[in-house]
Structures are given as structure tokens and as C-alpha cells.
Amino acid sequence: MRFSILMTVVSLLILAVGVYVLVLLIRALRKYIRSEPVRKEKAASARSLGEVLKRRRTECKMTQEFVAEALGVSRQAVSKWESGASDPSTANLIALAKLFGTTPEELLKESQ
Question: What is the CATH architecture of 47-110?
């Protein structure tokens, strides 16, 4: 008799913990789903020109050294462009776009 009462209590405790975990999971999922527009907005607005240049360079599997040689500038200049410490000149932006197989307008559009 005592054993069956003990088993019933333990079963109810396990059930209660399971329900509590389920409620917590549902709350977390609802919060995550509601935050999707915010996450998309942050991802879209977080791109600077330097980030766009770095992403395009890595997509093309190019090194900073290769880009620098192709444009006739130093590797440090490419590094500064990608870090946002400085911006490429108009001529260099056009050359970068050509090197990455896109247009300067597209690079600038991605960075806004």
C-alpha cells in the first residue's frame, strides 16, 4: 500500500516537472519567433562597406594580398578598407567591383 502511494507521488512529480519544462520550451519558442523581424533588421543594417568588401572577397576565395596586388595597393590598405578604418577611393571601388564580378552600385547598395 505504501509503495503504491509513493509511486503515485513520484509519478505526479515527474509529470509536473515534464509539464513545467514543456511550458518553458513553449515560452522560449514564442519569444524566438516574435524576435524574427528584429533579428532580420539587425542583420540587414549591420553591414558596413568594409564588411561587404570582406564578405565578397572571402566568397571569391581571395586573400587580402591577392586583392592588393590586383589593385596596386598595399595589403594594409585592403585591411583598413575591410575594418572600416578608411574607405577605398572611387577608382579603387570600381576596380574592387570588377574584381568581385559586380558593380560599384551593388557594393554600395549592400552596405546600406
Answer: Orthogonal Bundle (1.10)
